[in-house]
Amino acid sequence: PDLVKQTEEKVKLIKANLKVASDRQKSYADLRRKEIEYVVGDKVFLKVSPWKKVLRFGRKGKEEIEIQPDLTYEEEPLRILAREVKELRNKQIPLVKVLWRHHNTEEATWESEETMGQQFPQLFASGKFQGRNLN
Asked: Contact, 123 vs 79, CB < 8 A?
């Protein structure tokens, strides 16, 4: 009976200490918490299930993105927006401005035309240029 009583007292002491620590963490978190408001056009990422899919809400509406176990996702080019030739001292590098899936035009990136042609030949297969020429 004495051993049981000592054990119960220790358990009560441990519970009390855990509650104190939990309350301290909560009060710290409450101080840092702030209200956030979103408006139409804001980008918001919501986690749907761990390491599988993410819902993205943006100007284009709701989109679902497949997430790999290493937290990456497959980028897919939609079309070429523009072309440009970068002039260096001894050579010229042809570039294309690529619009990527799940991104808007402001987030389009300049990429090497050669690399994009090798990785995504379907962008160049039609023979029609979909953007404007900046040369």
From this structure: yes
Are the C-beta atoms of 75 and 126 separated by less than 8 Å? Answer: no
Read off the pLDDT of residues 63-100 as tens digits, 9 standing for 90 and up: 677 777 776 777 889 889 999 999 999 999 999 999 98
Residues 6+ apart with CB under 8 A from 85: 92, 93, 94, 95, 135
Could you tell me the pTM of the whole model?
A: 0.48
Q: How far is CA 25 from the centre of its chain?
A: 28
Q: Which of 97, 121, 117, 95 is nearest to 107 (CA)?
A: 97
Residue 84 phi/psi, 5° resolution? -155, 150
